[in-house]
Amino acid sequence: MNAIFYKEWIKTRWYLLLALLVTLGFAGYSMLRINRVASMKGVEHVWEVMLARDTVFVDLLEYIPLLTGVLLALVQFVPEMHRKCLKLTLHLPYPQLRMINLMLLYGLLVLVICFASNYLLMGVYMQGILAPELYSRILLTALPWYLAGIAAYLLISWICLEPTWKRRVLNLVISVLLLRIFFLAPAPEAYNAFLPWLAIYTLLTASLSWLSIARFKVGKQD
């Protein structure tokens, strides 16, 4: 496991640093927007805007986790397929399904660390100026976006691991439709009642990569 994680780290370390800086930058800028409103018109005005206009001040983050997950999958798996390294990897004396699961687990862990740092930054800042009900409203509104980033990573990995272009196009269409679910309701906290099921749905997308690996192992070309 350590060897697999180290191999994935070598491939993705510079992208992960960039992803961490970019996501933290957008999260920090969103907090600066709240700070500017609070400085100019007072914290009471922030509360009023959030309650009366359904404003959460983190709209800029909506598609950032999605893009982060997509790019991580591309950085991690495109070289594997382009250089035909995956075939060699699957012939190592190690269970093939466990090998792929560990590669996906690495991606999930680093994404969770990246996204958790965003939540830590926002949570620490907002606790100082907002009531718990208000900052939890912002964090819960943003949670489906971060789950979408994890789902996007798993779905794009599925596409990259697919051995045929015809199926990749089909998988891409299915992935777009599945990811659309995370952005159907723009209202704050619209997904609250659905969040546990959304998290399960997100994790289940990992199983799709097994289908591509099964096709890859038997040399499917159609």
UniProtKB/TrEMBL annotation:
Keywords: Membrane, Transmembrane, Transmembrane helix. The chain crosses the membrane at residues 12-32, 60-78, 99-122, 134-156, 168-187, 193-213. The keyword Nucleotidyltransferase does not apply. This is ABC transporter permease. It comes from Bacteroides oleiciplenus.
